[in-house]
Design a protein that fits this description.
CATH superfamily of the largest domain: Type I PLP-dependent aspartate aminotransferase-like (Major domain)
CATH architecture of the largest domain: 3-Layer(aba) Sandwich
Mean pLDDT: 97
Radius of gyration: 21 Å
Distance between the termini: 34 Å
CATH class of the largest domain: Alpha Beta
Strand content: 5-15%
Bound molecules: pyridoxal-5'-phosphate
CATH topology of the largest domain: Aspartate Aminotransferase, domain 2
Number of helices: 12
Helix content: 25-40%
Number of domains: 2
Length: about 375
């Protein structure tokens, strides 16, 4: 029995090298001075990936922890926070804001379109009294990317700190943290880095540190308290014992990703090839613009249930695709083409199986998915 090909938009395939790194002998991470150096070097590698000189922290929980930690550490009761919302994660950010006593003000736009920097500018000219704004780089459930490159400089111009959830984009979409003026950029281990779920990493700017450290009220959290991390290296002290094996795995994964200089090009070409093939066959994507190169959300063809597609893919072909949740439940299925899943051979097999499954379910396709994919991927 061969392994299942996991083509979901995270967690992604974990390579043998990363799995071996997870199995390395461990030391006591609180007491071993070499581990502090290893951790520092790992943070440096992540700085390269994020194109930033800002401090990088690794937190010991899955991607969501970073979103919550940013909110817990920045928000004081009554603070106004602007939540850019054109997707499920964008709206969800507001829930964390409220949980920590902030007032979430939503800048809500069409879920099928990227947020327009011009419209944001117009909005801010009327009201810009916000401590920070939350921006989702890639809306994973809908396969849509927002123009973070333009949105964050607009926000900063109005003196608003920028918190960007780039969990499903980092490593697969361009991201230049310093150049784009991102105060807190958030990533996770299980998306484009192709390490197992369990770690969050984030970069934090001098402006964001100031806001975190100069509060009137102390941060009402421990695990989500970023201030505790300010001097971890100088004082050789971690707030809690580090999951050393996970960090070995993450380090191997970031080293591998950085060695692959064609990573962004690979995501761009193969992402385009997947979309091109789906459209050529007559299928429809969920967004109308701003297509992500890390995940495609395909509208479920009429007369077919998403569960039926997913089940046939898994049972007959041993390929796992994903549905979606919340307002997109039942409306789309998703193909992850991020990190180690963004490979021509895996995507070819996926397209071949999907072609067969859809035809068997009576969906008429106007072209062959695998042939259309290969014609574009080879370019
Ligand atoms: C995956 C992801 C996260 C992390 O949360 P999950 O529990 O893995 O869903 C956060 N934000 C985005 C945009 C993600 O895609």
């Amino acid at each position: 029995m061969h392994e299942i090909l996991i083509m979901t938009p995270g967690p992604t395939y974990v390579s043998e090298r990363v799995r071996q790194a997870l199995a390395r002998p461990i030391t006591n991470p609180d007491l071993d001075p070499d581990f502090y150096e290893f951790y520092k070097e790992t943070a440096r590698q992540l700085q390269k990936l994020l194109a930033t000189k800002n401090d990088v922290l690794i937190l010991n929980g899955e991607g969501i922890l970073g979103l919550e930690a940013a909110c817990a550490s920045l928000i004081e009761p009554g603070d106004r926070v602007l939540c850019l919302e054109n997707g499920i994660f964008g709206r969800g950010f507001g829930d964390f804001v409220k949980m920590y006593g902030g007032e979430a003000v939503y800048f809500t736009r069409d879920y099928r379109q990227p947020i327009s920097p011009e419209e944001l500018q117009e909005f801010l000219e009327q009201d810009s009294d916000f401590k920070f704004a939350t921006v989702v780089h890639c809306e994973t459930p809908s396969g849509l990317v927002n123009p973070v490159r333009e949105l964050c400089p607009v926000l900063k111009k109005f003196g608003i700190l920028t918190v960007v959830d780039s969990v499903s984009a980092i490593g697969g979409e361009p991201l230049l943290v310093d150049q784009w003026k991102i105060d807190i950029a958030l990533g996770g281990s299980q998306k484009c880095l192709s390490a197992p779920p369990g770690l969050t990493f984030l970069s934090i700017s001098a402006d964001a540190w100031k806001a975190v450290l100069n509060r009137k009220k102390p941060i009402a959290a421990f695990y989500c308290n970023l201030a505790l991390w300010k001097k971890w290296y100088e004082e050789k002290w971690f707030p809690y014992t580090q999951p050393i094996s996970d960090i070995y795995g993450l380090r191997e994964a970031v080293d591998l990703l950085l060695q692959d200089e064609s990573r962004l090009e690979r995501h761009r070409v193969l992402g385009e090839a997947v979309r091109g093939a789906l459209l050529a066959a007559g299928l429809k994507l969920y967004p109308v613009e701003g297509f992500a190169n890390t995940v495609s959300a395909v509208q479920v063809p009429e007369g077919v249930k998403v569960e039926t597609i997913l089940e046939a893919m898994l049972k007959k072909h041993r390929i796992m695709l994903a549905g979606a949740f919340d307002v997109l439940a039942g409306k789309v299925f998703r193909i992850g083409h991020m990190g180690e899943n963004c490979r021509e051979d895996k995507l070819y097999l996926t397209m071949k199986a999907l072609d067969q499954v859809l035809r068997e379910l009576g969906v008429s396709l106007s072209a062959s998915l695998p042939l259309e994919f290969i014609a574009r991927a080879g370019k």
